[in-house]
């Protein structure tokens, strides 16, 4: 990951600072349904305001596809921001460029905050349009990007604008880049990756990158079935991508060449149906009945994973180890997540997790706060795990 400037490296007092945030939050009945992203943005805004900046917050919301869609207005986010800033006034401009935006910015005194309307009401935003980026840039003296979760997109507000103004990472972006850097760029070894989820077809790039970087690769969830099947194990009625057996074998060969130990389940919890109350039991991985499906890892696999984790210093995690939304198939993910959390709390392990389902699974296990770092970025976190260069991060390179 390239080096980048932070708020510590730029003088913001009296300056108009354009702050790219990710305020694409879940809404319910016109109100913010989950304040996590808003709360996590607050420290950067507060710090910039306290240092005397005029803070101009920009963000996209949903997918209006270049048109003004009133239900996708960022308007409701102004009171939400005000709330997390302890009641501080947050002005709102009904457009992110042009006269309305200029007037809102011109009305700011040092230490004040304005939020501009949804960037994606203009098609030029997603087109990474240079002219649109110039219009945005004309509203500020400095650009601060705090939206790691949007960094996999080369859009005008994440990529082009960074070349037009002096740029720096906000605290949230900085925290994320530092945590991810410690986990895969220069990790304390041994490093383990835990990859679960439904299918390998969606995670081929990710697996390919990880086998070259980590010392141990744990494969769980539905995707483990594809690897087991490729090795001749009968997986019964389980979710399994049989047409990807060759691909799975190639990944295993590469892992061997790169000295990456692949850890697959040695036992499984099986049931006739993916349904709450379906009679389930643990069986050896070589004894999966033909009329049953694997829905979780079994107790022997949990114990083996816990022991392997104890030998590691760093761990990255994406994807549940079983069909965790339905009990009792959450048990494997919950048990292993709790073990990782405990080792992290004891400072024996640096753990980083991310991805939508993963965050939900960790919350379900009651350990959402107990990993070293949990990324709320979905797509950007996955592309980072795939080893891809993120345009929004590259644009900040100093
Ligand atoms: P992903 O989006 O690829 O991370 O996949 C997450 C989904 O994988 C969750 O909805 C889980 O229920 C599902 N999953 C995990 N393990 C299994 C399994 N053994 N069989 C079927 N689905 C599974």
Describe this protein with a few key phrases.
398 residues, alpha/beta, Rossmann fold, 2 domains, six-stranded parallel β-sheet, 17 strands, binds adenosine monophosphate
Topology:
Blueprint: E1 16-20, E2 27-28, E3 31-32, H1 36-50, E4 54-58, H2 77-84, E5 90-93, H3 98-106, E6 113-116, H4 123-126, H5 130-137, E7 142-145, E8 167-169, H6 171-185, E9 191-195, H7 204-213, E10 216-219, H8 221-230, H9 245-257, E11 261-263, E12 267-271, E13 281-284, E14 293-297, H10 299-310, E15 314-318, H11 331-345, E16 350-354, H12 356-364, E17 373-375, H13 379-385, H14 391-394
Parallel strand pairs: 1-4, 1-7, 4-6, 5-6, 7-8, 9-10, 9-15, 10-11, 15-16, 16-17
Antiparallel strand pairs: 2-3, 12-13, 12-14
Helix pairs in contact: 8-9, 10-11
Adenosine monophosphate (AMP) is lined by residues 196-198, 202, 221-222, 239, 294-295, 319-320, 322-325, 357.
Largest sheet: 6 strands, parallel
What CATH architecture of the largest domain do you see?
3-Layer(aba) Sandwich
Mean pLDDT: 95
Helix content: 25-40%
Described by the principal axes of the CA atoms, the overall outline is elongated
Percent in strands? 15-25%
Bound small molecules, by name, code or SMILES, are:
adenosine monophosphate
Number of separate strands: 17
The level 1 CATH classification of the largest domain is Alpha Beta
Q: CATH homologous superfamily of the largest domain - what is it?
A: Phosphoglycerate kinase, N-terminal domain
Low-confidence regions:
none
